[in-house]
Specification:
Blueprint lengths: L15 E6 L9 H20 L3 E6 L6 E7 L17 H4 L3
Antiparallel strand pairs: 1-3, 2-3
Length: about 100
């Protein structure tokens, strides 16, 4: 079973965790624009999950700056933000 989920002989699997922070431009958008941005954000999460790169995404509540986290099932940072997995999100590119 360990091999089926990408684990080694000891059952250990590497993950990369990304913390999502509030963008510096979020106040520049209208309520409708923020709703549209959230839809794009959710579509990107679903795309990454469908590709098998993301195993969990969760929001944080009660903190204005730290907004959530992603767990990626990749071997290194090169498989995540630095390699366009997250950067393909309009949200990441536009500071929202």
């Amino acid at each position: 079973m360990a091999k089926d989920v990408g684990a080694d002989d000891y059952g250990i699997r590497k993950y990369v965790i990304a913390f999502l922070y509030r963008g510096d431009k979020v106040d520049q958008y209208s309520e409708q624009e923020r709703t549209d941005i959230q839809a794009v954000h959710m579509a990107n999460i679903n795309r990454l999950a469908g590709e098998g790169k993301m195993v969990m995404a969760r929001p944080f509540f009660g903190n204005e700056e730290l907004r959530g986290l992603f767990f990626f099932a990749v071997e290194s940072l090169e498989g995540t933000h630095r390699n366009r997995s997250c950067n393909q999100s309009w949200c990441t590119q536009n500071g929202s």
